[in-house]
Amino acid sequence: MSIYGEYIKSVIRTVPDWPQPGVNFRDITPLLQNSAAFRKLIDSFVHRYQEMELNAIAAIDARGFIIGAPVAYELGCSFVPVRKKGKLPFKTISETYTLEYGQAEVELHSDAFRENDRILIMDDLIATGGTMLAAAKLISRSGGHVVETATIIDLPDLGGAQKIRDAGYGVFSVCSFTEDE
């Protein structure tokens, strides 16, 4: 957890039974609306990665863009969107992954990275890990090297962070929530 982890966690709203009964939705909207909290969030990532040699931040559609762009700016590296299928206008490569209710697909421009670029993948949270792993596979296929994956929230009860670690990628989350919190 980052130095601001407990504070960041306290600003995130839990919405019970949304989008369906039994699900506790972790709403980052209050975090984004609170300028001091948002600054501390971005600072958490910048402080962690400022000493690493990164070429790009690859942020996952769409909430990953909210944190990935300012972090890329602060670190002086490029920003690359990992989009849902059909949203990128140029030649793409894609990766399909499994969801609870079916499959989804993410895409990346085929020329997004150079061979051996050092990439940080960012998203708002890790649940089952499917989207993050699909993004990591895309980046590896494109010649990039995933340095680490980073999120605001980890939901460890869903096992995604462990799946990502088991696949050989590092995981950093500013805070985490268990199901009973």
Provide a descriptive summary of the structure in words.
Helix 1 packs antiparallel against helix 3 (35-49). The chain has helices at residues 5-11, 29-33, 35-49, 63-75, 130-141, 160-166, and strands at 13-16, 24-27, 56-60, 78-84, 92-99, 102-109, 118-126, 145-154, 171-176. Helix 5 (130-141) links the parallel strand 7 (118-126) and strand 8. It has a seven-stranded mixed sheet with strand order 5-6-4-3-7-8-9, sandwiched between helices. Strands 1-2 form a two-stranded antiparallel ribbon. It contains six helices and nine strands; from the N terminus they run H-E-E-H-H-E-H-E-E-E-E-H-E-H-E. The protein is globular and about 40 Å long. It has a domain at 54-176: Rossmann fold (3-Layer(aba) Sandwich). It has 181 residues and is of the alpha/beta class.
- What's the pLDDT, averaged over the residues? 95
Sequence stretches where pLDDT stays below 50 over 5 or more residues: none
- Helicity, as a percent range: 25-40%
Computed Rg: 16 Å
Count of helical regions: 6
Q: What string, H for helix and E for strand, traces the elements in order?
A: HEEHHEHEEEEHEHE
Structural class: alpha/beta
Rough outline: globular
CATH architecture of the domain at 54-176: 3-Layer(aba) Sandwich
What share of residues are in beta strands?
A: 25-35%
**CATH topology of the domain at 54-176, which one?**
Rossmann fold
Distance, first to last CA:
16 Å
The total strand number stands at 9
CATH class of the domain at 54-176: Alpha Beta
Largest sheet: 7 strands, mixed
Strand order of the largest sheet: 5-6-4-3-7-8-9
GO biological process, one term: adenine salvage
Function: Catalyzes a salvage reaction resulting in the formation of AMP, that is energically less costly than de novo synthesis.
Catalytic activity: AMP + diphosphate = 5-phospho-alpha-D-ribose 1-diphosphate + adenine
Pathway: Purine metabolism; AMP biosynthesis via salvage pathway; AMP from adenine: step 1/1
